[in-house]
Design brief:
GO terms for molecular function: peroxisome matrix targeting signal-2 binding. The chain is mostly beta strands and about 325 residues long. It has one helix at about 315-320; strands at about 1-5, 5-10, 15-25, 30-35, 45-55, 55-65, 70-75, 80-85, 90-95, 105, 115-120, 125-130, 135-140, 145-150, 155-160, 170-175, 180-185, 190-195, 200-205, 210-215, 220-225, 235-240, 245-250, 255-260, 265-270, 275-280, 290-295, 300-305, 310-315.
Length: about 325
């Protein structure tokens, strides 16, 4: 099944190419988008905080930075606070209640920071970042420097994602073709999975199974990995025609996930089904880079692309119970 999405709303960011979107964990209808000028190659970046209502999507706050912004994550303990990562190697902490500029800037990475994620397990308020300098770093937003640096990858780190189940555990995906699992309490890598014979651009954890992750790669495929036996993937989803840029598990269905790609599409999958591809949404005209699924509004999806558009919609396959 393919075509345009149901109940779609769009917001244009003129002169900005979208890299990441994330729904607020607190406020239904609030969405952050990290974007860059000139496809992230040069120019500045913008963090756009958007608000959805019956009339459509409006701009709630906008923050500019002097380099492209490549990822964004919301605080898990303050509804106003966000963290972005930038092409200049820095992380910025922003407060929508304080629209003058960043509260803090953390500059330790030596190359572009492509990934930032705020921990989701109770009792922890820490952030992990992943960089083209081949390192991941652990941050406490109340401390002005990194707490720890994780080395081991032999290529660009494109994605760093906290486990929603296991405190202090995060995954990283890299241009070295591996998925790695780390524990902040131990210095070395716990698990190395040679996931694809291509650069891995994204990873995510299943919300219902602490041992299951998905990777998306330049080989156009998504693969599922069970940490109890990583020798073979538990699923292999093919259909994209160019690199898979971002993968996300559903917050509501254990076997459902979404992916977006440089083929301009967003695809929805159920890996438990014989024909796992549920739907292909084709509503962008450029690389589709950002993707998120709402925790508040069942079936609602947001994405962004290099065509300057952010879209919020409900795909047909999520409009009814799966």
């Amino acid at each position: 099944m393919s075509g345009a999405a149901r109940r779609s709303q769009a917001f244009r960011l003129p002169g900005r190419h979208g890299y990441a979107v994330e729904f607020s964990p607190y406020l239904p209808g609030r969405l952050a988008c990290a974007a860059a000028q000139y496809y992230g190659i040069a120019g500045c970046g913008t963090l756009a905080v958007l608000e959805q209502n019956e009339a459509g999507i409006c701009l709630f706050r906008s923050f500019d930075w002097n380099d492209g912004l490549f990822d964004v994550t919301w605080s898990e303990n303050n509804e106003h606070v966000l963290v972005t990562s930038s092409g200049d190697g820095s992380l910025q902490i922003w407060d929508t209640a304080n629209p003058t500029g960043p509260l803090q800037v953390y500059k330790e990475h030596t190359q572009e920071v492509y990934s930032v994620d705020w921990s989701q397990t109770r009792g922890e308020q820490v952030v992990v970042s992943g960089s083209w300098d081949q390192t991941a770093k652990l941050w406490d937003p109340t401390v002005g420097r990194s707490l720890c640096t994780f080395k081991g990858h032999e290529g660009i780190i494109y994605s760093t994602i906290w486990s929603p189940h296991i405190p202090g555990c995060f995954a990283s995906a890299s241009g070295d073709q591996t998925l790695r699992i780390w524990d902040v309490k131990t210095p070395g890598v716990k698990v190395v999975i040679p996931g694809h014979q291509a650069e891995i651009l994204s990873c995510d954890w299943c919300k219902y199974d602490e041992n299951l992750l998905v990777t998306g790669a330049v080989d156009c495929s998504l693969k599922g990995w069970d940490l109890r036996n990583v020798r073979q993937p538990v699923f292999n989803l093919v259909g994209h025609t160019y690199a898979v840029r971002r993968v996300k598990f559903s917050p509501f269905h254990a076997t459902l996930l979404a992916s977006c790609s440089y083929d301009f599409t967003v695809r929805f999958w159920d890996f438990s089904k014989p024909n796992p591809l549920l739907e292909t949404v084709e509503h962008h005209t450029e690389f589709t880079c950002g993707l998120d699924l709402s925790l508040h509004n069942h079936g609602q999806v947001a994405d962004c692309a290099w065509d300057e558009l952010v879209k919020i919609y409900t795909p047909s396959c999520l409009a009814a119970p799966v």
